Amino acid sequence: MTTPQIIATKGQTQLLERIAATRRFMAKIGSNKIACTEKNIVHHNWVRKFISNLNTLDREFSLTSSGAIALERVLGNRPAPKTTAEKQAYAAFGQIKLMGLYQQASIPHGIAPAQVLVTKKSLSTTDGFANIQGTMKTIRALGGMVVANENDTVATEEIRFGDNDTLSAFAAAADGADTLILITDVDGFYTSNPKKNTDAKHLPIIEHVDTNIILAATGPIGDHSRGGMETKLEAARIAAGYGIDTFIIDGTSPDCITDFFNGKTKCSLIKSTAFGEYLGDERKLIEIVMANAQKTMIPS
Structural domains in the chain? Predict the structure, then answer.
């Protein structure tokens, strides 16, 4: 297996130019930026500073935010949910707490957060997408900030997105964003999991997604997070279908978004033109790779 090459200095210039070109973005915030169930804490300060930083940007923005279940576990002093019904109940309690967190952080800056709860059906069908699109447009016209999340209280395993990375890609398209920013716990895409392999190489720009890139994607970390690097690559593919470029950035610091737009942060750009023939295939990327591998193993 060959290792994908890293784009050099010329690529870094290209990266900065693309960041500067962003006019409207959707930022996806994971559960681990909202609360930590292992340490039983809520990241109030992170959220406050992040919202404050958003307000300084000369750009339009909206959010997709996980964290309802994690918040309920911490603030409700509850154990990990064991059944679908428990997850849905935790989400029902936690959504109120999540929006309260965003509202408290937004009030000092005159920002009015507006909750948009969606299901897979409401974003992946023509009529549903158009409806959400109209809602988001109106929220923006009324001076609101969209905070999208999956409606876990009604979505069953068969009809759910399963992770907010995927949801954020559809939400970005519905909101007319030109850029999707996935805020996570690593500073971009690597040739393998950097937490397990010190030889993993960072890829600042992915211009072509191939088998090596797909196999390099890693799984989820943490008991309350449903999305790993594999889901981020899938989200980038969905966004690419709408002509939206995707960035993966490290959100350890609440200053991550301002550092990103000031060109001070390490990140990865997955171009909307990177997916080629994978765009029209409804199967997951790994399923395509495995199917192609099986074909090559079958003797002619």
Answer: 9-297 (3.40.1160.10)
